[in-house]
Amino acid sequence: MRDTRESRLLLVLLVATAFALITVDIRGGEDSPVDGARQAAATVFGPIQDGVSSAVDPVGNAISAVRDSGDRHDRLAELERENAALKAKLGSDDRNRSRARQLDKMLKTAGAGQYGIKGAEVIAIGAAQGFSWTITIDVGADDGIQRDMTVLNGDGLVGRVTTVGPSTATVLLASDPDFTVGTRMENSDELGFASGQGDRPLRVELLNGKAEVKKGDRLVTFGSQADRPFVPGVPVGVVSRVDPSGGDLTRTLYVTPYVSFSKLDIVGVVVQAPAKDPRDTVLPPRPKPTPTPTVTVTVTPGAEDAEGTVGTGDTADGGVQQEQEQ
């Protein structure tokens, strides 16, 4: 419809009529003359309104559900973060307890040998300087560390310092094939030289080819001139195998080291040698032997059978008794 004078006049009349009907409906109250028309309209348009409402409400509910789901997801993510943080804290506490035990054990070892040590943490492992078995520690020249100092931990000999930087140092491990240290047997004082063999036991050549050695014997460092690179008395390991003596000038042993070179964390660099050789005092206590049970069988006298033999089936106190002696 074009916007003409007649159309505008028609619009004004319709608006005026609508206002008139509204006024009559309000004044009429329950007896309004247009109540019938309103009910008829409700009958016609009510189902349509309900349908529209039914169609719209699920959408609204879905939107609310999505919004609530987002809130739940955020809360779940927050709980997961809190759980991860708690696990990290617990893991850190476990690690700190482990390191505290390592440090305590190392201090006891240093105290037993009267070694002055500088504690350090292993921060790297690898072949940065061309060695096969090395570690890097977080102390260096600024901490008084020098080349050819002995490195130990709570278990025993770790290695020796080979390269020193301002704040770090490289340690050649006793397991390296290029590593050699003088050793002394516990009690017998037999001397030898131990060499690394990677992940295999240390190889020790005793200077005395006729030395009496057996599995389970223990070795410590013999010490070097002026205590460099090795101080005396540091536990090295336990004899695990002895080659048969073939009349050679030396005798070969294989020694399981006390130190686990793949689990190094806290170590100590010996910056001050002991005033005197601690000998075997730094060695750990020997494990107590497990008692071997023995069985004693006691046969109680029984009634003789018809042939004069002793019966073992019907004895007065139940037959065979066994005693186990520890």
From TrEMBL:
<comment type="similarity">
    <text>Belongs to the MreC family.</text>
</comment>
<feature type="region of interest" description="Disordered">
    <location>
        <begin position="277"/>
        <end position="326"/>
    </location>
</feature>
<protein>
    <recommendedName>
        <fullName>Cell shape-determining protein MreC</fullName>
    </recommendedName>
</protein>
<comment type="function">
    <text>Involved in formation and maintenance of cell shape.</text>
</comment>
<dbReference type="Pfam" id="PF04085">
    <property type="entry name" value="MreC"/>
</dbReference>
<keyword id="KW-0133">Cell shape</keyword>
<dbReference type="InterPro" id="IPR055342">
    <property type="entry name" value="MreC_beta-barrel_core"/>
</dbReference>
<dbReference type="InterPro" id="IPR042175">
    <property type="entry name" value="Cell/Rod_MreC_2"/>
</dbReference>
<dbReference type="InterPro" id="IPR007221">
    <property type="entry name" value="MreC"/>
</dbReference>
<feature type="compositionally biased region" description="Low complexity">
    <location>
        <begin position="308"/>
        <end position="320"/>
    </location>
</feature>
<dbReference type="InterPro" id="IPR042177">
    <property type="entry name" value="Cell/Rod_1"/>
</dbReference>
<feature type="domain" description="Rod shape-determining protein MreC beta-barrel core">
    <location>
        <begin position="130"/>
        <end position="270"/>
    </location>
</feature>
